[in-house]
Structure formats: structure tokens, C-alpha cells
Amino acid sequence: MKIRVGHLYPDYLNIYADRGNIAVLTRRAAWRGHELDVRGLSIGDAMDPAAHDLLYVGGGQDREQALIAHDIAAKRDGIIAAAEAGTAILAVCGGYQLLGRSYRDFHGADLPGVGLFPLETVAGERRMIGDVLLECELDAGVRRPLAGFENHAGRTHLDDGAEPLGRVVAGFGNDGESGYEGCRVGRAVGTYLHGPLLPRNPWFADWVLAQALAHATGRDPEPLEPLADELEAEAHRISARRAETRGGRY
Ligand code: GLN
Q1: Under DSSP, is residue 128 helix (H, G, I), strand (E, B) or coil?
Q2: 183 catalytic, yes or no?
Q3: Which alpha helices (DSSP H) does 100-228 contain, by range?
């Protein structure tokens, strides 16, 4: 099966080598006989809501976010229509913030957002930095851990009733107070976790792939054939242990 991926702003949003997530998806898809067809989508490119099975956007500093914010806001209708039609979406940090309604940076400048995720982000004085461990329940009754690294000044406030990606076990998460991290709307997930996120969380990489495949086939998401994942499990253990021993303070 060919899985069509739109990588938004690969030339602007790639802090902490977030494009490594695409490399993980490509290999894990290939090991199951699927091919990822990855296209960059940048400033001025048209956003066809039917053209992708997965949209991916990485993280970046305020400066890079400011450079692309008006363009991503102009792609708003296309991105929301894609999500409503079941396209999988993964957005990390700066990209996560811009898929919310708005981002107010440290200088008080307001950047427009896409409004896919029901949240707003306002930068605070101190950055929230360090290893993070979450507990997620993306499939009802199945709780799984996610480990990663966060570095953000933005405090993200979810609307009442919004679904977070997970509960913070260690680290700051969305705002350092709510105990929640990230946001999920259907097959769209936003998170502060870099690292990159997917090499050390193989179950989550496969969850994202399964959502993208579901869009490609028009069927419900199905579990993918298991892989050995020994190195990935070790990377996860080390990352989770670092988060557990860091404490959750500034
Ligand atoms: N500029 C944003 C913040 O600091 C996002 C940073 C990032 O993507 N790491 O809140």
C-alpha cells in the first residue's frame, strides 16, 4: 500500500531533528510492505485536503513559527477538511501550537493558528525543559507509556472537555499545572514531545501508521504486524527512566 504523507514546512520546522519521525514511519511501513510517499508542503503550496493519508508538522522556535504562521493559517480550511475526512495528523511542539487557535509569543505578538485543536498557547517567562513520561489511552482500555523530551516556553491551555494525548507521569506537559500533555482530535494528535518522538515509542509510531493506513484503505484502523523492537524498547526504557528521575520542577 502507498501511504501519502504531507510534511508541512520541513525547511522551517525541524528542531531536535523532528524529521527523524518521518524516517521511523518510512522504515516501519517498509518492514510491513508499505511505501511512504513523502512530499514537502511549504510556503505558498496549495493544501489539497484529499491528497494525503498523513500530515506531519515538526517543532521550531518562535522565529520560524512567525515565518510560517500566516501561511499555515491560510491552509486552515484544507487542513481541517483533511482531518474531518480521517487524515491522520501528527504535530510536534511549534507545529502543535500552530494547529491550535493561536500562539502568543514571549514579546506579546499573536500568531494565528489553524483551530484544529481546541486550545490556545501563551508563552511564559521560564522554559519547560527536560525528559517527559506520559500515560496514554488512545484506544479505550489500553494504557501505554510515551517517553520524550520537551523544551517550550508556551503554556498550552486546552478547552474544557478537550481530549489530551496523555496524563503527565513526569515532566511539565501542556502547561506545568494541568497534568495533561498534548491534544487529540480523532486521528489528529499534537504533542510537545521531541526527541524525536517515534524512535523510542514504537507502539505510537505504529498507531500513527495504522491511522494513516485506515485513511488510505477506507477501513477501520487495524493492528500492524509486530516487529522485534528490541533497540526501540531499550531506548524507551532509558528515556522513561531519565524522566522518572528528573522530577517535574523548574
Ligand atoms: N516556540 C515554542 C515555544 O518555545 C515552540 C518551541 C519548540 O518547538 N521547541 O513554546
Answers
A1: strand
A2: no
A3: 202-217
The model's pTM: 0.97
Enumerate domains of the chain plus CATH numbers. 2-246 (3.40.50.880)
93 is catalytic: yes
Catalytic residue among 34, 194, 215, 236: 194
Q: What mean pLDDT comes out for the span 205-213?
A: 98
Which amino acid is located at 200 in the chain? Answer: R
- CB-defined site of ligand 1, < 6 Å: 15, 59-62, 65, 93-94, 123, 151-154
pLDDT of residue 250: 45
Cα(206) to ligand 1 centroid in Å equals 26
Residue spans of beta strands (DSSP E) within the chain: 2-8, 35-41, 54-57, 88-92, 102-104, 110-112, 119-139, 142-158, 166-170, 180-181, 183-185, 188-191
Query: For residue 72, what is its C-alpha cell?
Result: 499555515
Query: Which atom of ligand 1 approaches the CA of 151 most closely?
Result: 9
